[in-house]
Amino acid sequence: MSGNKFWSDIVSELDPYVPGEQPQLPDLVKLNTNENPYGPSPKVLDAISAELGDGLRLYPDPNADDLKQAISDYYDVGRDWVFVGNGSDEVLAHIFQALMKHEQPILFPDITYSFYPVYCGLYSVAYELVPLTEDLAIQVLDYKRPNGGIIFPNPNAPTGRLLSLAEIESLLLCNQQSVVVVDEAYIDFGGDSAVALVDRFPNLLVTQTLSKSRSLAGLRVGFAIGSPSLIEALERVKNSFNSYPLDKLAIVGGVAAIGDDEYFQQTRQTVIDSREQLGEGLRSLGFYVLPSAANFVFVSHPDFDAAELSAGLREQGVIVRHFKQSRIDQYLRITIGCPDQNARLLDVLASLLDQK
């Protein structure tokens, strides 16, 4: 590649994360990136509109104290237990650099968020993959061994399967010598947050995002909750990298989203109800649907190739996510859309299955 003689040595060794595509096509049913089908709270739009003006010439609050306060109030923790960043991806990146680089390898599932090994490559963090069970579930017993840290999503991605708080607590009781990170990007769609355990386990760090359940993927707001000693490590990395990760619009929008609990509860329950209805529709077409506590379902069909189904859907203007990774190359991850989008998906799938 031209120009690579100027690269740092590490660049050629990186295997970058590939995000879900964002095609700009008319009448597209876009069910591939787990975005919320419902817009943000009207209070968010009002807050952002009110912030537009001459004040944008000034830097935002580098500590985003208003946002931290809103999060600490919502989860009933001290403000010094909260870290915020430019989406949970940036928060996770700081976690890998600040808390995961030790002599022993860290542990995470073999089927999980594919950014984890990318961070390990970027920050030279040794890791070991822990296989999911045959039914694609995390088995906490497999993590009860020496390690430099543990991280996993709950619910897991792309499977959607959930660990109970009791299972997470059992892991923490046996693993108190390294950090345990629970990545809760999808927790609001069906699980209990491990934030309830942070006051008992100083090595537990919980990350969340406003991208999914709060419909703010376009603002990029993520956060972590954990003991002040863990938060301090993240702040030290953040302030050595970018003192202003959140702009003024993201801060006021995030505060407004967290403050409108009524809208949050309404829209997340609508997504949950739609997930159950879509699951029933898929099962009626012969699909195997993994139990999901997320805003997506992970499905396979015993008689049809997943890649071919994905391509057939695309031809009809419906986009879902197909992974080529071993063990899951016969699954499709389907974001929960609004009722009309879900109905369109089922109609197209039914026609594709009838053609075989």
Q: What is the fold's blueprint, element by element?
A:
Layout: E1 29-30, H1 42-51, H2 65-75, E2 82-85, H3 87-99, E3 106-109, H4 115-123, E4 127-130, E5 150-153, H5 165-174, E6 180-183, E7 204-209, E8 222-226, H6 228-238, H7 248-259, H8 261-284, E9 288-289, E10 296-300, H9 306-315, E11 318-319, E12 321-322, E13 332-335, H10 339-355
Parallel strand pairs: 1-11, 3-4, 5-6, 6-7
Antiparallel strand pairs: 2-8, 7-8, 9-10, 10-13, 12-13
Structure characteristics:
globular; Aspartate Aminotransferase, domain 2; alpha/beta; 10 helices; Aspartate Aminotransferase, domain 1; 356 residues; five-stranded mixed sheet; 2 domains; single chain; four-stranded antiparallel sheet; 36% helix; 13 strands
How would you characterize the overall build of this protein?
The structure is a single chain. The protein is α/β, with parallel strands linked by helices and 356 residues long. The protein folds into two domains: 4-39 and 262-355, Aspartate Aminotransferase, domain 1; 42-260, Aspartate Aminotransferase, domain 2 (3-Layer(aba) Sandwich). It contains ten helices and 13 strands. The strands form four sheets. It has a five-stranded mixed sheet, with helices on both faces. A four-stranded antiparallel sheet has the order 9-10-13-12, covered by helices on one side. Strands 1-11 form a two-stranded parallel ribbon. Helix 2 packs parallel to helix 7 (248-259), helix 3 (87-99) packs across helix 6 (228-238) and helix 8 (261-284) runs parallel beside helix 10. The termini are far apart. 45% of the residues are buried.
